[in-house]
Amino acid sequence: MKKLVQAAFAGAALAALSSCVDSDNCPPTHYRNLFREYIGVTDSTVETKIDSAWQQLFYGDDDTQRVYYPAGEDMAYILAVDSDDVRSEGMSYGMMIAVQLDKKEEFDRLWKWTKANMYHAEGERAGYFAWQCRRDGSIIDPGSASDGEEWFVTALYFAAGRWGNGEGIFNYQAEADAILRAMLGKDEAGDNPSGTVNMFDPEAKQVRFVPLKHWAGVSDPSYHLPAFYELWAEWADTNNEFWSEAAKASREHFRKAAHPTTGLMPDYALFEGSPYQSYGHEHFVFDAHRTLANVALDWAWFGKDEWQKEQSKRVLGFLSAYRPTIPYSFTLDGKPLTDGTSTSITAMAAVAALATERNTGEPYVRDLWEAPIPDGKYRYYNGLLYILGLLQTGGQFRVYAPQGMINPLHE
After folding, report:
1. Which domain holds residue 388?
2. What would the pLDDT profile of 250-293 be if each residue is shown by its tens digit?
């Protein structure tokens, strides 16, 4: 059941939670600003840097800088520039960035485009979103990538907390609840033409890479977001215990998927953590960059698994031999697979500093601070992770509880 704030003190408690979210009264262990702590940058300078990233990535030059493109009078999309398509991943990241920066118009534009073009209103995929569309909204691949739904849900809950609920698709909390119900509401036998199943395995309680029968035993470690599941366990209108168990299962998955020496995780893995062999995704490649941040954010917010500190120290210790131009791909035992680097790994390594001591983490915080805002052909993934990295490392990635709900970071 939902954990509602009791009426006897609801008003005072909610007022306190709201002021905590919007002021310096928040517990510093949850929203640490490592740029201030480690390199002496003022809060206002951090905010200016984040705003510069926002302005360039959302309103910069059409051809070389922006990833956010208005569509008509009231919609917009995030463009994966290098492949010239629109992905649920990017749309959900754009929404999360918008709600963190209090950009309601952009949030609503992105969400309306998503619901108009990506959402499956009926059929075996009902309640899910197509992961890939063209710029005109036509669907390229109707299947779903589970991380898009995960980030949609959490961004919508935060929108409900920050702005309140509206009507229709802008009843953010109801929309989030509906997606969560759909995630667990499919036929596990996959007895339909597409083979669509739940996004989370009901026994392993782990997120699936894609919700399809023939992929049913495969996960993606970077899709594991235990910090989000803890919030869903508090706020969802059903299956709350499942989401609590999913958070525990993801923390265990991290332990099993991480290489014991390097700390690197694969792009794809079986539920027990072993790499899944598929066109190089058994290695530490682009998806896996996000595992550095997912582990550390969970520690920063909830601090339930001491191993997460060991893991962050281990992986940053391994990568230290390569910084500041860290290769973007490795075998799990640490052999570089490329000479090229990417801003995405720079950003996620900085977030990992939230879960380790200063002498290990500070160099990565400096690397992110000094990194330019991504532009050019590969600005989509690099740029979105860059701004998310700034928000998380700079203490600006915060929890907004829907009205009447407990913020578990401030109980």
Report:
1. 32-46+245-395
2. 999 999 999 999 999 999 999 999 999 999 999 999 999 999 99
Residue 68, beta-bridge partner list: 78
pTM of the complete model beyond 0.70: yes
Residues 196 and 290 in one domain: no
User: For the packed helices 343-352 and 289-302, what is the interaxial angle rounded to 10 degrees?
Assistant: 20
What token pair was written down for 93?
């990241």
Q: Is 89 a catalytic residue?
A: yes
How far, in Å, CA of 117 to CA of 111, rounded? 10
DSSP 276: P
Mean pLDDT (the chain, rounded): 93
Out of 89, 106, 175, 201, which one is annotated catalytic?
A: 89
Task: Give residue-wise pLDDT tens across range 54-96.
Answer: 999 999 999 999 999 999 999 999 999 999 999 999 999 999 9
Verify whether residue 24 is a known catalytic residue. no
Q: Looking at 108, 201, 287, 367, which residue is catalytic?
A: 287
Q: What is the model's pLDDT at position 411?
A: 62
Q: Are residues 78 and 187 in the same domain?
A: yes
Question: Does 302 fall in a domain?
Answer: yes
**Are 146 and 251 found together in one domain?**
no
Q: Are residues 267 and 375 in the same domain?
A: yes
CATH of the domain at 175: 1.50.10.10
Domain count, the chain: 2
Angle between helices 104-117 and 88-100 (to 10 degrees): 160
Q: Where are the alpha helices (DSSP H) in 225-342?
A: 226-235, 240-257, 289-302, 307-319
- E strand or H helix at 70: strand 68-71
